[in-house]
Amino acid sequence: MQDWVTKSKAMDDCTLCPRRCHADRNAGRKGACHEDSAVQLARAGLHMWEEPCISGIQGSGTVFFSGCSMGCVFCQNRPIASGQIGREVTIERLAEIFIELQEKNAANINLVTAGHYVPQVIEALKLARENGLAVPVVYNSSGYERAETVRMLEGWVDIYLPDFKYMDDDLAWKYSGVKEYSFCAKEALAEMVRQTGTPVFDGEGMMKKGVIVRHMILPGHTRDSKEVLRYLHETYGDTIYISIMNQYTPMEWAKEYPELSRRLTAREYEKVIDFCLEIGIENGFTQEGEAAKESFIPDFNYEGV
């Protein structure tokens, strides 16, 4: 493992994410992620709405980091992703939060959009482990990662929970403002699978090690969803689990994109699920009922921070 002094230098000329903005975040300049080197959090608490093997009955100990290297026009967490909401915490406090979540019987520590804080997160995990942190650590990501940054997390993360949003890079540019999304997602995912290997579950069905890839279907774009799922299955088979999400929620800040102004139809979701069955996907999760509700979006009120 690199020591903290070496890793912190990544903030002097930041290239942690694929945008490689070269911001001197240690000097207080904000990068493409909207954040400098000070860790900003919006919420830390038990979360019941992850996949069953992540939340279980006790809840996942989610820590929502402010900032994001993507710019998705439909982002449900836009107030924190854009850096509008966030409370600064020290690395020592971050480690304490991990321990506090464990004391609340969290099934795991779930790091939500932490890619631009990887060096600080590693240091906090080190401190937390020294003070008794023993539950699995989940890295919950947009999928837009550099494989080199993911490699820094080896030995610190047990479960990877990345999105794979697009196969079509034109869609990625149109809706998220990023180039080469599919290339970056593929490279990062390969590193995640290399680290974790075959999924491991305990006797109660809770994941202890492995990768779950999430894909949220966008209205009108089932064709791209099928290409994402085909790639995942042909490349990884049963080595990963795939979570197929129907929870797209139209947000008022995406009104400039009329094609995204509606929810996914039941027929669209069924078409994608039928395709998964046709190509032989077995290790997967689906969403039932009305998951596309704003009530499923956490209240970013600094709980637990």
Automatic annotation (TrEMBL):
Family annotation (Pfam families): Radical_SAM (PF04055)
Residue numbers binding [4Fe-4S] cluster: 68, 72, 75
Keywords for this protein: Iron, Iron-sulfur, Lyase, Metal-binding, Pyruvate, S-adenosyl-L-methionine
Domain of life assignment: Bacteria
GO MF annotation, one: metal ion binding
Cofactor-binding details, from the entry: Binds 1 [4Fe-4S] cluster. The cluster is coordinated with 3 cysteines and an exchangeable S-adenosyl-L-methionine.
Gene3D superfamilies reported for this sequence: Aldolase class I
Residues in Radical SAM core domain copies: 63-231
Keyword field contains Manganese: no
Database matches in PANTHER family: FORMATE LYASE ACTIVATING ENZYME, PUTATIVE (AFU_ORTHOLOGUE AFUA_2G15630)-RELATED
Name this protein carries in UniProt: Pyruvate formate lyase activating enzyme
